[in-house]
Amino acid sequence: MIRVSLRMLLKIKSLASQYKDEFIAVRQHLHAHPELSYKEFQTSTYIQQKLTHYNIPFEIKATTGVVGIIEGKNPSSRIVALRGDMDALPITEENTVPYKSTNDGVMHACGHDVHTTCLLGAAKILQETRDHWEGTVKLIFQPGEEKNPGGASLLIKEGVLENPSPGAIFGLHVNPQLQVGKLSFRGGKVMASADEIYITIKSKGGHAAAPHLTADTIVIASHLIVSLQQVISRNRNPFTPSVLSITSFQAGHTTNVIPSEVKLMGTFRAMDEEWRFKAHDIIKKHTVELVHAMGAEADILVDVGYPTVYNNEALNEYAKTMAEEFMGKEAVEETEVRMGAEDFGYYSQHIPGCFFRLGTASAKKGTTSGVHTPTFDIDEDAIEIGIGMMAAFGAIANFSD
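^ that's the sequence the OP posted. Answer follows.
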């Protein structure tokens, strides 16, 4: 078991408190200037300027990604990666705050401004304390978490987990259902895979008054949607969670025409990788055969997305223990399993990972709206905690006081 210096934890906690206001301002700047996935050019430049100011060397990967390196004593003794994503969502913000989004139709509605801020704050603390911890910390400011193929996959392809190769990676995510002042952890499977489904059903179409002369794409699509639910529920192990949701039905433009084409879109989520890909085959086969049996043709694409997020049990347990030392046992809870997805799963396929939750909720301050909503915001007291916890995880080692 790696030992943790209590003195070092207290030093980090003190610095996080000291820099709280500075990084609240950083978060507000990022929140006011959101950018969509793979277009985070200004955000990337801002991060580069901060790292330069902190005298932290960095390189650019995947166009807008920024990867910094901080070396402590004995740099090769162990390498830890810290990850923060930085893209926003195509949502129009409805909050009336001074730091409201200045980019119409774009908003940090998933807290990636917080994640980036916490990593920047941790970077400053780790750089200042580098004479008191051993090893190397790799800072991963990642683009494109919200959109396939996921910025994590692009960074991995460009060697972000090499030269040097981290032995572990930590990432955090805001949780507006968790009270500010709390953190949560969970070992094993914690988030689902996410794949996108695109189906096109085609026939010759025809007059709505003469359906016998057509293959009715509307009726066929309706049968398919219902039957796909049964296909999933009757083929998966009841103890293996998975969800198939058809979220878009596009067809027709008037009352008296049976359209020649219907387009469906949806998502498939799973917690088991073997079942995940077996389900893909079942969905494809069932779609083509049912549609063909009803007189039409079908094209189907299953766009493979993010894998499950798996938290290494030993690393998670250590991180939880460290958080209890840092925050107190009463402040640490267990993360619930979610069918939501996160491209942090790509990292955890390669090296031990710990993806934990940062409480941001405050009923008094009105910060209880869910992520991906136009009224999402955080209790900014969470910034100090996120900065400190990420810095603490970066400084895991046998410390010299």
